[in-house]
TrEMBL record:
UniProt name for this protein: Translesion DNA synthesis-associated protein ImuA
Matching NCBIfam families: ImuA_translesion
Domain of life, per lineage: Bacteria
Classification via Gene3D superfamilies: P-loop containing nucleotide triphosphate hydrolases
Biological source species: Maribrevibacterium harenarium
Length: 231
């Protein structure tokens, strides 16, 4: 029998800051960047949004705060890494003025339009794995299979990208390969986020957030951003 050091080098000893990959080997858990909401950081049990992989957001309708929930994290990540955020076949056009107010320049935003489902999935996979984007917003209906989502999750891990899969609340009982599945809804004028699935703990816990209050963000380096349309 080998020494503890040899077993550790072979990935046969699990440590608290590791997770188990699909091939059975231990992998280091990448440090997370705060969501910008302390209550949400605690809900996720990991101090922030994961650096990569798939996160599901279940919503009753489009436009209930999906982008606002990610904006503080998105602003910090783009400013520190200089990468892009992409939206593929977004049902609603993101408010560019809001993005600029958070320090996200228009040229750091990609709005992509695919013609059919096959092209949509191909575009999603490329954006996730190529490394140009720190985040990709995607919309998947109830017919999207776990196998498809698993491919996207692995693509996001390869590209060190956070894939945000926005889905209807009707899928909350279905299986998902995403480590995080959150339900987002409006309750009494606030955003209620319920953790249906999360890494390292049971689901079912909820928090309420004021998405209208802009968190304190680091200043955008350089000159003022010129607002221009995205074509």
């Amino acid at each position: 029998m080998g020494s503890l050091g040899q077993l550790s080098e072979q990935g046969l000893i699990w440590k608290g800051n590791q997770t188990r990959s699909a091939d059975g080997l231990n992998q280091q858990i990448a440090p997370n960047r705060s969501t910008g909401f302390e209550a949400l950081d605690r809900l996720l049990l990991c101090g922030g949004w994961p650096e990569s992989g798939l996160v599901e957001l279940l919503v009753p309708a489009n436009g209930v705060g999906e982008l606002s929930l990610l904006l503080p994290w998105l602003a910090r990540t783009i400013q520190e890494e200089g990468r892009k955020v992409a939206f593929i076949n977004a049902p609603l056009i993101p408010n560019i003025a809001t993005l600029v107010a958070y320090g996200i320049a228009p040229q750091q935003v990609w709005l992509l339009r695919a013609q059919n489902q096959r092209e949509v999935l191909w575009s999603q996979q490329q954006c996730l794995q190529e490394g140009h984007c720190c985040a990709l917003f995607m919309w998947h209906d109830a017919k999207t299979s776990p196998a498809t989502l698993r491919k996207l999750h692995h693509a996001a891990q390869r590209g060190r990208c956070l894939g945000i899969s926005i889905r209807p609340t009707s899928v909350q009982q279905s299986a998902t390969p995403a480590p995080y599945r959150l339900q987002l809804e409006s309750v009494a004028g606030q955003a209620q986020v319920t953790a249906l699935k999360r890494r390292g703990g049971w689901g079912g816990e909820s928090v309420r957030l004021d998405l209208t209050a802009k968190p304190k963000l680091p200043p955008l380096p350089g000159n003022n951003v010129e607002l221009r349309s995205l074509n």
